[in-house]
Amino acid sequence: MLEADTVARDKKHLVTRRTFDCTMATLKVLAIGAVLGSFKSFFSKVKAFDQKHGKFEMVIATGDFFAPEDDTSKEEELIELLEDKLEGD
């Protein structure tokens, strides 16, 4: 059994919550659109959805995860992410 509902929608993202029922176990999956290197925003959104809808066992980021190569504005966030120092808003 698969249940899906739209949790939020903005100009760039459609966030859905999908619940899979496989062999009597339920897995909550959060699917969110392209991150495009905005890691702080991504983690803040995941945290907000966790607080509002309960913890998700899996988060899937669809689309481009990293910023385009010619966009250097997100390099600091990438370095913080790689050094495990990134915190959401």
Characterize this entry briefly:
The protein is an alpha+beta fold.
Question: What is the global morphology?
Answer: elongated
Strand content: 25-35%
For the secondary structure, the number of strands is: 4
Structural class: alpha+beta
The domain tally reads 1
Our Rg estimate from Cα atoms comes to 14 Å
Order of helices and strands: EEEHEH
Taking pLDDT < 50 over at least 5 consecutive residues as the criterion, the unreliable ranges are none
Largest sheet: 4 strands, mixed
The helix count comes to 2
The first-to-last residue Cα distance is: 35 Å
Percent of residues in helices: 25-40%
Overall mean pLDDT stands at: 80
Strand order of the largest sheet: 1-2-3-4
